[in-house]
Design goal:
- The chain is of the alpha/beta class and 347 residues long.
- The chain has 13 helices and 12 strands.
- Helix 6 packs across helix 7.
- It is globular.
- It starts with a helix and ends with a helix.
- The model has no long low-confidence stretch (mean pLDDT 92).
Length: 347
């Protein structure tokens, strides 16, 4: 991507204004004003200059801890009949963003977020892609800096859609453009989006304000949300579920990988309370590998009511009790308690 294109994208996404629209308290904290005067050169180091913090904290990891994570990873993937030599091909063969905490295996860079996303990829590949080769249109809501999308796009000819905050879209556009310079990128520039655009482009980037443009024009075969619903307010989660349940094709898949409980938005966000309707078959539901606070839920859209999704959410609700503090404690009060514990070195 050259600087002229980048400047056009900045102007289109209006990052310089750093608007707080659609930003939860969680993302207001992480983004703050880091993108106000963003320059193209900053993206070359986005993984070590704090631009990707919140999406990817690999630069803050200890290398000894990373080595332990790699050992656990090699054991975990055996459960899905994966060999390390096969999955390593999904990792980066160039250090885009210049992360400074990594291990090297042959030509591949291994870091914490690569290991995390590789586990996500394995679930999607084994439980979704291996069952359905009809997937053409993919939507990822909150795609980090684009790494999971890169893993999926390496040997799949998808039309891939992204909805995210404009600051995060910039990182995704940069990262994916470096990886796939041949793919044609669409960044919403006006009030229109139609079938002609769908035919002429490969990667599509939209801000949350543009949800209606997608919902009026595209249906999807796979929708992905990993670790971002848990950082949204309940109102936003409800809006995204309306999109998912309207625009996911019959027999399409929804991959939901989020924490059981999180309160960084100022609200208590529980996965078991996400507003699923009754038209879902449950394909997979389990703790996400060794991440005990995170649950993987894969569902498939049906045209008849199912009772299993309610049963599954009830099971998840029971698991949630192990990961949240007593319900009578308000979020703000819990923040005070946490800060006090830190000062007293009790955590």
């Amino acid at each position: 991507m050259n600087q002229i294109n980048f400047n056009n994208i900045i102007e289109t996404l209006k990052v310089k204004e750093n608007k707080k629209d659609n930003k939860s308290k969680h993302w207001q904290y992480f983004i703050n004003n880091k993108f106000e005067n963003i320059e193209f050169a900053s993206l070359e180091n986005f993984r070590n200059n704090s631009l990707s913090d919140g999406l990817d904290n690999s630069r803050l990891m200890d290398k000894n801890y990373l080595t332990k994570c790699l050992d656990v990873f090699k054991l975990d993937i055996k459960k899905f009949d994966y060999k390390f030599e096969d999955i390593i091909k999904r990792f980066d063969d160039k250090n885009i963003g210049n992360n400074n905490i990594f291990l090297k295996h042959d030509k591949y860079f291994i870091d914490f977020i690569q290991l995390y996303h590789a586990k996500l990829y394995i679930l999607i590949e084994k439980l979704i892609l291996a069952k359905s080769r009809k997937i053409k249109n993919v939507l990822e809501i909150g795609a980090g800096y684009g790494n999971l999308a890169k893993m999926l796009l390496l040997d799949n000819n998808f039309k891939y859609f992204f909805i995210d905050l404009p600051e995060n879209l910039l990182l995704q556009i940069y990262f994916l453009n470096v990886n796939f310079p041949q793919l044609r990128i669409y960044v919403n520039q006006d009030n229109s989006f139609n079938n002609k655009d769908l035919n002429n482009f490969d990667l599509f980037f939209f801000t949350p304000n543009d949800i209606f443009k997608i919902s009026n024009n595209v249906n999807f075969d796979l929708i992905i949300n990993c670790s971002s619903f848990m950082e949204m307010e309940k109102k936003s989660i409800k809006e995204y579920f309306e999109l998912i349940q309207k625009n996911l094709n019959l027999e399409g898949y929804f991959f939901n990988n989020n924490r059981y409980f999180k309160d960084s938005t100022g609200q208590k966000i529980r996965l078991c309370e996400y507003p699923y309707d009754d038209f879902w078959a449950v394909i997979y539901s389990d703790v996400f590998f060794d991440f005990r606070r995170v649950h993987s839920l894969i569902t498939q859209r049906t045209n008849d009511k199912k009772s299993e999704i309610k049963k599954t959410l009830k099971q998840i609700k029971n698991l949630t009790k192990n990961h949240e503090y007593p319900r009578f404690i308000p979020v703000e009060a819990m923040k005070v308690i946490r800060n006090l514990k830190k000062k007293l070195n009790l955590t």
